[in-house]
Amino acid sequence: QSWSRGMSYCLHSESHLDTGPIYVRENGKLHVVNRGAGGVQNVTPKARPFSLFSRTFSVELCMNREDDRARRQRTDHFIFTYTKEGNLRYSAKSLFSLVLGYISDNVDHIDSLIGFPEQIAEKLFSAAEARQKFAEPVTGLRALQKFTEAYGSLVLCSLCLRNRYLVISEKLEEIKSFRELTCLDLSCCKLGDEHELLEHLTKEALSSVKRLLLKDNSLSDAGLRRMTAPVRVLKKGLDNLLVLDLSCNPKITDVGIGYLLSFKKLNCLDISGTGLKDVDAVVKRLQMQIGLVHSKVPLKEFDHSNCKTEGWAEQTVLQWEQAVLEAMKPQDNLRSRVTALHFYGKTHRIEEVVKCTLVEPETKASGNLQFYKENVENCHLPLKKEVAGSHELKNNKKRALAEQERERTSKQKHLCLTVEDWDLLNTY
């Protein structure tokens, strides 16, 4: 046979190339040539089968190419625990948990939450907060607005931003989205008269504020005039204000205190450290027109111990603050430069957070100018019984004088508005 002679020639050739197994088909059967035996065997080919894939290919390698999000969604359906024997056990999550996680991942696509049960909404807010959805630049604001529009004070009823002016500058729109706040602390933020947040205080969304702390904010008479204009004319804005702190604002004078007389519900007022010229006249004016009595001792309402952030978004505000602090940390590539400056004797300017001092020089000069309204249940005052008793004896006489002053001011009510006031009101 011609094919056997050809095969024997190939087997006995001096070529050292390994061509692998050689197969020959004859009469419908496949034969393999055995080089060791020097002949042909009619056997089924088992050694070194032909493969279409390389040795490094595996199915596991293809699975590892999936993105992390798809892998996390696949494992999030189960809860993994360990038994006492150390064996791994997993159980499927509830349908509610799966749906809650899915909605929280896409919380910015919610159209509205008005009418949605608040018990489930709180869990949804916590789930989105754990994923830091409200810390995202654009989608976080849109998601937060959906909650504040539907639940108001439940999201946040008290907000303390004392000495956090960087958080205000970075998250101003998010802060403006909060509604129905009852307590707002903006102390030591150096906002000034023209800040957008102070203008927002006059809006209807913050008409529920009862406690407002604006200590050390570089305010002047112009800022107070703008802040009290809706109350003085339209009976809107901060009409429900009970506690107001304007201490350590030396640009506020006697003229600015006159704008505060429109706060008829005011129970406690702190104007220590302001630029008053005639302190005695201001004290008498506050006592006669709105019934505020000068306190001889510091009031608990202004010690800033009761002001804190409360509501669903408490952790969200902390996340904002942590993000700002992380952004302020010096980078690693700048540390070597700072070290070099110190080595060559050059001073390096480091921006630090300006902390508000509790006692200002202006406060020491003008003394304690805190006022309170007598016979108020909600105003907890550290007053001595002797002082309180002496005020009660003079209470009737003060009421009579106050009524006469109200009648006199009511006749001149149409003369209280200036051209600047009307121009300001036209902007609302």
From TrEMBL:
Lineage top rank: taxon: Eukaryota
Record keywords, A-Z: Leucine-rich repeat, Repeat
Residues in the signal sequence: none
Pfam families assigned to the protein according to its UniProt record, in alphabetical order: LRR_6
Protein family: Belongs to the LRRC42 family.
Protein name per the record: Leucine-rich repeat-containing protein 42
